[in-house]
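Input record (one chain):
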Amino acid sequence: MLVVDEESAGQRLDNFLLRHLKGVPKTHVYRVIRSGEVRVNKGRAAADTRVQPGDAIRVPPVRLPERPAAAPAPAREFPVLFEDDHLLAIAKPAGVAVHGGSGVSSGVIEQLRQARPQARFLELVHRLDKETSGVLLLARKRSALTALQDQFRARDTGKTYLALVWGAWPARLKVIDLPLHKSLDAMGERQVRVVSPASEDGRRSITLVRSVQPAGSCSLLEVSLKTGRTHQIRVHLAHSGHPIVGDPKYGDFARNRELARGPLRFARMFLHALELAFDHPASGERITLRAELPAECATLLAALEPA
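The corresponding structure, as predicted from the sequence alone:
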């Protein structure tokens, strides 16, 4: 029996179990959740159930493999965009997960906690994909975490991304309103796809797109979200026929490989969380934070500009 502590408040059930059942295969964790063997307060629960302090979670007997203790996460600081007693905002680089798990030994949160051992509280407010760079918000107080997560759930925040996609973006396509369905493959990895509006499995997903400039055989887009589904931008843009440059999951793998091996050596996904707007959890002041485009993305854009 596991009991949810204050530190885990609001965490998804699957992530909570993966954190506590280290060494248990991810596929097994998802299997026991789907089968109903995992109970939260004596009731069945889905993988995306948000756990709360004091929740009693019953887990069936699992056999943990014997293995040496994992090395502590390396201490690392990241460029700070904003910091006070309530929150911390950083510019996350591409290629760094926001937290450990799924074959990643550590991420931003573990590395920051190692770098700041004096911090009494430090939690992720939201997430960015490992391959995405840009503004990432963390809470330094539980009250701030709760208030900010409420804003994210209510869509009271403003998020703007820059994405470079293959091909010429059609100027008329400004709104993508297509339902998305999330599932797990045999390895327990998330897969997201567009489904029919009539499908019971789909969740309405709305992405707003503005073409910023052509860039050679690509287009630079400014993208904002009306909903915040997993991989929403990546799947919507790929489904439109214009996948994000460098996307390792939904992209054009042949062109990505050619770009990574060519003279430009661009080997990341060109999706950048440019701006994040929210109300300060203590003062109520509207704050807009901006993370400038990373150097490798700016260099690629300059090289792709039409002559």
